[in-house]
Amino acid sequence: MADLSQSMSCDLSGLPVAPGDIHAAAETIRGAVVETPCSYSRTLSNICGCDIWLKFENLQFTSSFKERGALNRLTALTPEERARGVIAMSAGNHAQGVAYHASRLNIPATIVMPVGTPMVKVENTKHHGAEVVVTGATLEEAAAFARSHGEARGMIFVHPYDDPLVIAGQGTVGLEMLKAVPELDTLVVPIGGGGLISGTAIAAKSIKPSLRVLGVEAWLYPSMYNAIHDGNLPARGDTLAEGIAVKLPGKLTTEIVRRLVDDIALVNEAELERAVAALISIEKTVVEGAGAAGLAALMSDPSRFAGQKVGLVLSGGNIDTRLIASVLTRELAREGRLTQLSLDIPDRPGQLAAVAALLAEAGANIIEVSHQRTFSDLPAKATLLQLVIETRDSAHLDEVMARLSASGLSARCT
Predict the structure, then answer these.
(1) Which domains occur in the chain, in start order?
(2) Are 290 and 318 in contact (CB under 8 A)?
(3) CA–CA separation, 392 vs 314, rounded Å?
(4) What percent of the chain shows pLDDT beyond 90?
(5) What is the pLDDT of residues 171-227, one digit of tens each?
(6) What is the end-to-end Cα distance of the chain in Å, rounded?
(7) Is 118 helix (H, G, I), strand (E, B) or coil?
(8) Helix residue ranges per DSSP H, 335-390
């Protein structure tokens, strides 16, 4: 995690967005956007050794903070601009925010989404009444198409992050967090293009200049980290946090981050998966990879936050149900609660029953069973037995493996 605090200042003068703009945005969106809870998590606090408050932006109607900036921008359109319609590019959450509030305001909307956008986000955007065009391998390619398509039709382009009105709308998250928990020491905020952290930092530091603001990016997309440090870490690949998979951050947002954000953390895919699983199992709340990035940073380096009062923004909850299932089962495997075993056994009656009985005595539950006789280098009178078993934890798994070994069975985790 890079410490930028020595070069940072709380001077808010000359920024593209002023605190007054964020307070004005709060009035503009009041009643049309949910003032989401900012709640204390006793269990996560105990696990991480600090006091943690969660800002549940996944509880917005479209399950994302993006509604705030989208509505603030749309409300500022003139009647003539509203008639011409709007166009936006997004991997999902900005798309839904624009589509939903454009529909409410009777503004025609077209949304361009890159190939690979989770289907749940594509379908939800369509359900809000927008025309959806899926094109471009990246957000940048989708943005280029959206701009050219919109210009040809006279539509207003609504940028997902590099727009003062959008930034001001996102900053209302910071106002609400400090209103709910004035004693916060640190805010941990996901970074994609930088709109959320920019607005939140301005709002929060205008109220409490001593407050620290930490940004979090996926290791696979360290775009703001590179911009701040003049780095060249690669940005590529499929990440669980596709909502913050941005190759180039905004110009306006980069300027704000340079001045106001104290640290930027990079989290890997396993850490993101662990955070998503923890929020489901502990808080009983569904959060997408980008929304769990803040908790991922905290869980991966708890000593950095020891004793602090920390606010985490759960920025969105739009995640495919199949992906949730995969994340949860992979986490069970990491915890030693689900394990795939391979055993070489004689190919004769009763062997499978003997193994099953032994596992039952050890307290393990068999989830899946398969035999492999053909594609194996075992002797013809032997077979490869593959099992998926459920155990209480890694210590219990060790006990099961010891029991199998003591019975003369050659078992290995695969």
Answers:
(1) 1-334 (3.40.50.1100), 336-413 (3.30.70.260)
(2) no
(3) 29
(4) 79
(5) 999 999 999 999 999 999 999 999 999 999 999 999 999 999 999 999 999 999 999
(6) 33
(7) coil
(8) 351-361
Alpha helices in 235-335 (DSSP H): 251-260, 269-283, 293-300, 321-334
Cβ atoms of residues 15 and 256 within 8 Å? yes
Structure tokens belonging to residue 260: 């106001």
Between CA 78 and CA 85 the distance in angstroms is 11
Q: What number of residues does the chain have?
A: 414
Whole-angstrom distance, CA of residue 256 vs CA of residue 197 = 9
- The conformation of residue 268, written as its DSSP 8-state character, comes to -
* Under 8 Å between Cβ of 76 and 115: no
Distance (Å, whole) CA 18 – CA 252? 13
Nearest residue to 261 via CA among 200, 214, 202, 309: 214
Strand 411-413 to 338-346 pairing? antiparallel
Do the beta carbons of residue 265 and residue 217 sit within 8 Å? yes
Average pLDDT on 26-32 reads 97
User: What is the rounded CA–CA span in Å between residue 349 and residue 114?
Assistant: 55
Q: What is the pLDDT of residues 59-71, one digit of tens each?
A: 999 999 999 999 9
What secondary structure, in 3-state letters, does 171-226 show?
HHHHHHHHHHCCCCCEEEEECCCCHHHHHHHHHHHHHCCCCEEEEEEECCCCHHHH
Name the CA radius of gyration of the chain, rounded.
Answer: 25
Examine the pLDDT at 8 and tell me if it is beyond 70: no
Element (H, E) at 399: helix 394-406
